[in-house]
């Protein structure tokens, strides 16, 4: 399937409210893809995700990323000392002390420095292969990704999240590094800076897993999903 077909299929099977969002991390040695425009103003990674689910597409060079916390975890810039030391997050009132905030940052997943841009947009409009596909929707809707992920091999799903970095770390970086889906309840930053609704959450799926995920959803769509979903 091409990207447009994948997007259409998963929207239909899950009855998604928004477009699946594709994210591509551009490394230093890679060419900048054509067909994407830079945002007029600096933008956060989380803002680009939430706008892309409604149809917008972006090429965001590292100097157009508005959030240093997200940009540094994505390997676009060095991590500022105030972030590493915990002062940045502690000053927001979300931790008892800078040491506790520093402990969160020390444990976050991050990409190696040297990346130059992110490309973000609706999956249906992507002519390139993305690294990860991000869905934003209600918990009941995204729940069905769990039986889809375990349909063929079984097992359990373990999700890694924190009070910050729901879209950059939880939904983009962790799926890229692990090759597995990850889910997040959202975070302080994305809930403050975007239009994500109180009742919505986020899932990140490695692009390489999408066709297998769709195959599983097709198996359960007309049976278990139909029986359990409340109209």
Task: Report what the structure shows.
- The chain is an alpha+beta fold and 231 residues long.
- It has one domain (3-228).
- The chain is built from 11 helices and 6 strands.
- Strands 2-3-1-4-6-5 form a 6-stranded antiparallel β-sheet.
- The longest helix has 19 residues, at 210-228.
- The mean pLDDT is 96.
Number of strands: 6
Poorly predicted runs are: none
Q: Looking across the biggest beta sheet, what order are the strands in?
A: 2-3-1-4-6-5
β content, as a range? 5-15%
Give me the strand/helix succession. Answer: HEHEHHHHEEHHHEHEH
Cα-based radius of gyration, to the nearest Å: 17 Å
Number of domains: 1
Largest sheet: 6 strands, antiparallel
Defining key terms:
231 residues; globular
In short:
The protein has a six-stranded antiparallel β-sheet.
SSE map:
Blueprint: H1 3-14, E1 21-27, H2 45-52, E2 58-61, H3 68-73, H4 81-84, H5 87-90, H6 98-107, E3 115-122, E4 132-137, H7 139-143, H8 145-150, H9 166-178, E5 182-184, H10 188-193, E6 201-206, H11 210-228
Antiparallel strand pairs: 1-3, 1-4, 2-3, 4-6, 5-6
